[in-house]
Design a protein that fits this description.
Order of helices and strands of chain A: HEEHHH
CATH superfamily of chain B: MetI-like
Largest sheet of chain A: 2 strands, antiparallel
Strand order of the largest sheet of chain A: 1-2
Radius of gyration of chain A: 37 Å
Oligomer: heterodimer
Number of strands of chain A: 2
Distance between the termini of chain A: 103 Å
Low-confidence stretches of chain B: none
Helix content of chain B: over 70%
Largest sheet of chain B: none
CATH architecture of chain B: Orthogonal Bundle
Number of domains of chain B: 1
Mean pLDDT of chain A: 72
Order of helices and strands of chain B: HHHHHHHHH
Number of strands of chain B: 0
Strand content of chain B: under 5%
Shape of chain A: rod-shaped
Structural class of chain A: mainly alpha
Shape of chain B: elongated
Largest interface: A-B, 40 and 45 residues
CATH class of chain B: Mainly Alpha
């Protein structure tokens, strides 16, 4: 009868290593790959997240800028409009574009 | 600054004020279509059977009508106005969202993680809400942006025909309709609202296209 569970398990056999730190398997040498400094995950190529990729897209930024301008006009329109849009002025009909 | 229309009203002010009904219709109709269409597509794609047949064939019937003619018919019955426009354009866009959600649901529900969640005892509602819906949102967001551009165009068209925003309230389509009679004398009163409509639609389409490039994994190099 065994007194503890440790006694029932055979002692762990460690495989002898060669000078390069690898193991000799059937006469050949398996070299151990060098470990990356920041762990295994650091070696994988990391793709930036969706918010970063969205921010990088020039077309998206340009389109969103124009849309936000229209949205701002819709929201704060009454505050920025130079005149009342319903104000009729019979003396000023069909006036042309006059910058400034 | 941009001139005046046939009643001497300031065009710039009318363009600024006209953005509100246009965007209300665009965002409202697209949101309505997104919610109803996604729900119909999800349910039909997940449960299949008779429910799928009834839902998708009804939506196919709706899709077979020319949009502008159907919108004119419905607005003719309901009457013009922003609220009715949101309702009509929203319902018109439901089949597009439903078909997209349906196709994506059919694809996603066959994936291993959905089967694994089902094997672990997840209910149908949990599978739909927690596992399938989050994975079909990307194409639906892209479709939402494109539907907004289409809704602006449809709202402008209906307002141009006198079936949209009611005068004297300003709307970009209504401004073009009013300026049509004076096109030869004062082309600028038609030019500016047309330019604003075109620029807004172009901007939304460009943004939607870029959004699709970022969110669609099949387009990644």
């Amino acid at each position: 009868m065994v007194s503890s569970i440790h006694e029932s398990v055979a002692p762990r056999q460690t495989m002898p290593r060669n000078a390069a730190g690898g193991f000799n398997v059937s006469g050949g040498l398996l070299r151990r790959a060098p470990r990356p400094a920041g762990g295994v995950d650091a070696a994988l190529p990391r793709r930036p997240g969706v918010p970063v990729r969205l921010g990088r897209s020039r077309r998206l930024r340009a389109g969103a800028a124009v849309f936000l301008l229209v949205l701002a006009a819709a929201v704060i329109g009454p505050a920025v409009a130079p005149h009342d849009p319903l104000e009729i002025n019979p003396r000023l009909t069909l006036r042309a574009f006059a910058p400034g | 600054m941009l001139g005046t229309d046939e009643f001497g009203r300031d065009i710039l002010s009318r363009i600024i004020y006209g953005a509100r009904p246009t965007l209300t219709v665009a965002v409202g109709a697209s949101s309505l279509a997104l919610v109803l269409g996604s729900l119909a597509g999800l349910v039909a794609g997940f449960y299949r059977g008779l429910l799928d047949q009834v839902l998708m064939r009804s939506l196919d019937t709706l899709l077979s009508f020319p949009p502008i003619l159907l919108a004119m018919l419905v607005v003719g019955f309901l009457g013009p106005g922003v609220r009715n426009l949101v309702l009509v354009i929203g319902i018109l866009f439901v089949p597009t969202f439903a078909r997209l959600a349906y196709a994506e649901t059919l694809r996603v529900k066959e994936l291993e993680y959905v089967a694994a969640a089902g094997a672990l005892g997840a209910t149908s509602q949990r599978l739909l809400v927690q596992h399938i819906l989050p994975n079909i949102t990307a194409p639906l967001i892209v479709q939402f942006s494109l539907a907004m551009a289409a809704a602006i165009l449809l709202e402008s068209g209906l307002s141009f025909l006198g079936l949209g925003v009611v005068p004297p309230e300003s709307s970009w389509g209504l401004m073009i309709a009013g300026a049509r009679g004076y096109m030869a004398q004062a082309p600028n009163s038609m030019l500016w609202p047309a330019l604003v409509i075109a620029t807004t639609i172009l901007a939304i389409n460009v943004a939607g296209d870029a959004l699709r490039d970022v969110l669609d994994p099949r387009l990644r190099s």
